[in-house]
Every structure is written in structure tokens, then in C-alpha cells.
Fold this sequence. Notes:
six-stranded antiparallel sheet; flat; 0% helix; 10 strands; four-stranded antiparallel sheet; single chain
Amino acid sequence: PRLPFVASYLFVFVLEKSPGDAPTEVAPALGGPAVIPGGWHGAESGSRWTKERAGVWLRLGSRVRAEVLHDEPDGAPLELAVAVERERIGGGTISARAWSEVAADVPEALRGTVQRVFLAPSRTWSPGDHGVRDDLRALGVSVRRIWTE
């Protein structure tokens, strides 16, 4: 009450609560649009991850695996990282226009825990930058399935 409005502060805290449990596999039949950002698209048979990285909650085993597709028109290989929160645990290089698998070994300390697992492509491709009108997505990869074993 003693500070004028222009000298006052406003604090906003945005928190994300980790779930008490999570699946060991996310696929269209199990998850749907709410599980992986971007939703499931029939033409791609997977979820288009439209950001630089996107993640899902998984109960981790000893290894994380994902079936992925990138279909940039130029067809260059794409480096794809698998990370738990901010720590890269593995990844690989995938070819264009063919479903591929990337995998990463889970550190011993994380096994059995519920963590957010991210896939992060080394680049994205924007249709709007290449003359495709009204399509402002930044395409990353399509994900058909992600699981842990």
C-alpha cells in the first residue's frame, strides 16, 4: 500500500507437477493428442513434434527407444537427441522419409523413476520459409512410438 503502482512488483510462479506414475510406452492407442504435443496425424502415423524439443512422461527402465520419422524435402540426415530433462542421454542420426529408431541407455540413478523424456532434433524445417502458404509450423520429427525397456 505504500508503493505507487508503477513501482510495485507482480510475481507469477508457473509450476509443473510431475505425475505420481507414468506409462512405460506411449503410442497412438495409449496416448492420443493429450500425451504428445502436436496430436496424432493419420498421414504420418505418428505425432508431429512441432517444437525444437518435446517430451513425454515415462517410467524409465534401462533403455529408452523411439520410432521416429523426419521428412524434410531436402532429405538430409537429421541428428536427434534423447534427453531426460536437460541432460542428453543418447540419440542418433536418422535418414529422411523412413521410419527409424533412436535409443539411449538410461543412467542407473534414473532407472525406475518417472521422468520427462525429450526428443530434440538438431534443426527444424518451416514450410512457411519455403513458400508453403499458411503453414507456419516448425517441423521437427514425427513419433510413432516411444517406450522404455
